[in-house]
UniProtKB/TrEMBL annotation, chain A:
Transmembrane segments: 46-63, 75-96
Listed name of the protein: Oxidase
Species whose genome carries this gene: Methylobacterium tarhaniae
Record keywords, A-Z: Membrane, Transmembrane, Transmembrane helix
Taxonomic lineage: Bacteria, Pseudomonadati, Pseudomonadota, Alphaproteobacteria, Hyphomicrobiales
């Protein structure tokens, strides 16, 4: 499919970032799976949620290429998660503050 | 065009056909990206409501949720996450090759993406079958529920089926669109007129991956 050395070099130049992104996601998934399988300390869920958040940010910035988009698209992508943040924060403040 | 074009030859082989209601191709491409993002935000809020409900159930009924979560197939969920990360990589490959104008390679990456998406659904189907065998489907009236002494666990299990089947429906829709687009993209001249369709669809596919990246820890990992 990609016979010549030139073609392979071009392919690698364009595929380097997606491959590194996939590797980073797999490493973070490995951390979460290891934590979930072993439950090494009481509040491990905090670390698991942080790792999941890092995976989401990685997909947004690198797989979905938000960092290369114009400011309006960046605003749209950011504001969606901001709305979700409001939804989670206000609801959980209620439940977590109940006696 | 198959593999063989260099970066400098790409310009004439890859492009977007301007439609009448846009002033420029650049404006048309940006409007398409923004439109897809606007739709993805509505999807994000839909799934966010389900994930928030799962967290609230975990807070209000911790023992029942943990008892139900022990029946979830943790390792199948983890394997499926690897499968979707792989499918995101092949989708990124299709996008990169579409930018290069390497049509044959792009089509192969698109087929690989559809195959990985189908593998995810097959594993999910097996997981549902195993749940059925374990009597973990409380919504079936003619089949006794395994945790019948724990009514709150029904809430979590039902939510699990709603969230994962909704995600599966999105994935099935994605595979269908992807296969139709692969057929279109294999025809000569596709990349000269419609290259940005690959990019726009890629946003949807990566978003399906993103939703599962959240669903796996929230449903499977946190509740162990």
């Amino acid at each position: 499919m990609f016979g010549t050395g030139d073609e392979r070099r071009i392919l690698w130049r364009h595929m380097r970032e997606p491959v590194l992104t996939a590797c980073a996601l797999l490493v973070m998934l490995g951390i979460n799976v290891a934590l979930g399988a072993t439950l090494p300390f009481p509040h491990v869920w905090i670390v698991e949620l942080l790792v999941a958040s890092a995976m989401v940010v990685t997909i947004l910035l690198f797989s979905m290429e938000v960092r290369h988009e114009p400011p309006l698209v960046k605003l749209f992508a950011g504001i969606g998660f901001f709305w979700v943040g409001i939804l989670f924060a206000m609801t959980l403040v209620d439940y977590l503050s109940r006696p | 065009m198959s593999a063989g074009a260099t970066d400098s030859q790409v310009g004439s082989q890859v492009g977007v056909k301007l439609v009448s209601h846009f002033a420029t191709v650049e404006q048309q491409k940006r409007a398409a990206v923004l439109g897809m993002w606007a739709w993805l935000l509505t999807e994000l809020l839909l799934f966010a409501g389900l994930f928030l409900t799962a967290l609230i159930l975990r807070l209000t009924h911790p023992e029942a949720v943990q008892a139900a979560a022990r029946h979830l197939k943790f390792w199948i969920g983890a394997t499926n996450t690897v499968v979707l990360i792989g499918s995101s990589l092949t989708m990124s490959g299709a996008i990169q090759l579409s930018r290069l104008g390497w049509q044959r390679g792009m089509v192969r990456f698109m087929l690989a993406t559809a195959a990985l998406g189908t593998l995810f659904l097959a594993l999910k189907g097996y997981e549902y079958y195993a749940d059925y065998q374990e009597h973990m489907m409380p919504f079936l009236s003619d089949r006794p529920y395994a945790l019948k002494d724990s009514p709150p666990s029904r809430l979590f299990v039902n939510l699990y089926y709603v969230a994962t089947s909704l995600h599966g429906l999105h994935l099935m829709t994605g595979i269908t669109i992807l296969l139709a687009m692969t057929w279109q993209a294999s025809r000569p001249g596709f990349l000269k007129q419609h290259q940005n369709r690959i990019e726009i669809f890629g946003l949807y596919w990566h978003f399906i991956d993103l939703i599962w990246i959240l669903a796996f820890p929230i449903l499977y990992v946190l509740n162990r």
